[in-house]
């Protein structure tokens, strides 16, 4: 297989060096891994399972989950501020907030239609 440099500069001689060897080996490894088994003999699922078992991965995953849950809670708090309730400071569950939002949107649509 010819390198792009070999095609563009045919009179310059071989432009391949030892630094190209890892790239070539990486491509061969990718092709062999397409079959689901790496050169180490582990399947993709097994490698994923082992990677997820590391403390570093679990810590990063827990951090991502905390950020996700915090964003979720902030979104519900913002939605809650927009909904009229009696009393105004009544604590609502997430499902109550969603149901109230649906009813409030339907009410606003009705008001606009009239």
Structure overview:
With 114 residues, this protein is mainly α. The protein has two domains: 1-53, no CATH class; 54-114, MYOD Basic-Helix-Loop-Helix Domain, subunit B (Irregular). The protein has helices at residues 4-8, 21-33, 44-52, 55-82, 94-113. The protein starts with a helix and ends with a helix. The model is unreliable at 1-5 (pLDDT under 50). Residues 56-108 form the BHLH domain.
* Number of distinct beta strands: 0
**Radius of gyration using CA atoms only:** 29 Å
**CATH fold call of the largest domain:** MYOD Basic-Helix-Loop-Helix Domain, subunit B
Number of domains: 2
Helix and strand succession?
A: HHHHH
Q: How much of the residues is beta strand, in percent?
A: under 5%
> How many strands, what sense, and barrel or not for the largest sheet?
none
In terms of structural class, how would the helical and strand content be classed?
A: mainly alpha
Straight-line distance between termini: 72 Å
Give the number of helices: 5
The CATH class designation of the largest domain is: Few Secondary Structures
Low-confidence stretches: 1-5
Q: What shape does the CA trace take?
A: elongated
Instruction: Determine the fraction of residues in helical runs and give it as a percent range.
Output: 55-70%
Question: In the CATH hierarchy, what is the architecture of the largest domain at level 2?
Answer: Irregular
The mean pLDDT is 80
